[in-house]
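quick one: iron/sulfur cluster bound model?
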Amino acid sequence: MARFRRFALEDTDHLIREMDALNRRLPISDNLGILGETVSLGNRTLPNRFVIQPMEGVDADPVDGSPSDLTFRRYRRYAEGGSGLIWAEAVSVVPEGCSNSKQLRLRPDNLDVFKCLIDETRQAARDALGHDITMIVQLTHSGRFSRPGGAAAPLKAQNNPWLDDFLGMGDLEPVSDDYLDSLQDDFVRTAELALQAGFDGVDMKAVHGYLAAELLGAHRREGKYGGSYENRTRFLRETTKGMMESLSTGVIITTRMTVLEPCPYPYGWGVKPVPGDSWELDLTEPKRLMSECLEAGMPIFNVSMGFPRFQPYLNRPHDNTLVGQDDPPEYPLLGVIRYQEAVREMQSVDQNCPLPTAGLTWLRHLMPQVAAGLVEEGWCSLIGLGRSAFAYPDLPKDLLTTGGVSRSKCCTTCSMCTQIMKDGVGRTGCVIRDREVYGPELKRGRRAAV
Ligand SMILES: Cc1cc2nc3c(=O)[nH]c(=O)nc-3n(C[C@H](O)[C@H](O)[C@H](O)COP(=O)(O)O)c2cc1C
Ligand code: SF4
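yep, here:
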């Protein structure tokens, strides 16, 4: 494994030399115009290939989960920045499934605030760029990582010694089948509200170790939600089917699905079915499930991998870690390549499915050429912006109008936005490129943590 080093790449020639040294490859292209192409999504047309990936801002009203002024500001900046698709962040479907006290919650009594958020965001895109955007919202239950009101109150899908030992959850009973049955209804009800609020579509979040993702690897769970492939995927398949039946045709129902829950078999997902103390990536089941989801009527799909809590290097390669943590165990460029290779494998399930990638932010000013290469060679069809959405929301506009991006606006992968989340006090965004707003938020959390 290539040892950890921080980003020091000057240009694409330099990047190619580094990849040659690793004996790995990412496609690179100067055909940046490809990123401005329109893309069909069901009965809609995306104005370009850029997608804001879901990024929790932990800035909702702690009392009722309504979007706050800072939420409005974030979404306005995304819209004005030019991305054609905004994949809105995780919104909890039940109070006990919130990841923190300031996670967004969509409820009948705050529907009007969400309506305003969506109207203003769409209008901001029209005013700034004259185009219409598509908005999908991610619905979630945080499972093991639930912290409603800010205090840990985990709900797990199965007994898993790898996670239970690490998180001190050995004594916790897995949630019952009855709980999951009624949670399906909560997802469908919240999806109905999302449509009333004005979203174009709904994503059932099944990624990053949260409840629906953990169920995918629940080989040892008893009952109808565990054991066989059919049972482990039941919660995702039945819930999204329920959404499709309850919402009108033309509404986008989709999922951001994990391709890897990295635990040794029989506890992981996307891992080779070989018992032992380690895991190896095997996308057979994730590809099968993606194929079934598309057949069932999902017009778009999204993926990610790993537990951000334990292996952030897998899904957001970075130069700096959280306070008190060791440096990443590998050269972040390897993480970028691994992620893109997994996305390419998933895109191969259906080359016509709009599939956004992510994990490109570490590449900074070299991201556009790699993004263009990925699209040109069919590794993915859309380019997702995660941390770049916080640091440099107008990257798409700059690129598509001037042909270049500004190095001084790029995310430095310093992890301070994640530090704010971890500290659990502040509201998050880019501490480096949006310092006036988020510098004080970081300080508040750090002071509380110390
Ligand atoms: C602060 C923060 C919040 C995030 N919130 C979400 C979320 O709500 N839902 C989700 O699926 N991914 C979430 N992610 C992951 C991103 O969507 C994205 O996959 C990841 O940052 C890698 O992309 P990047 O290299 O462009 O940052 C979050 C990441 C960060 C750093
Ligand atoms: S705080 Fe800003 S620069 Fe640092 S990782 Fe987050 S978005 Fe990037």
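The chain has 16 helices and eleven strands.
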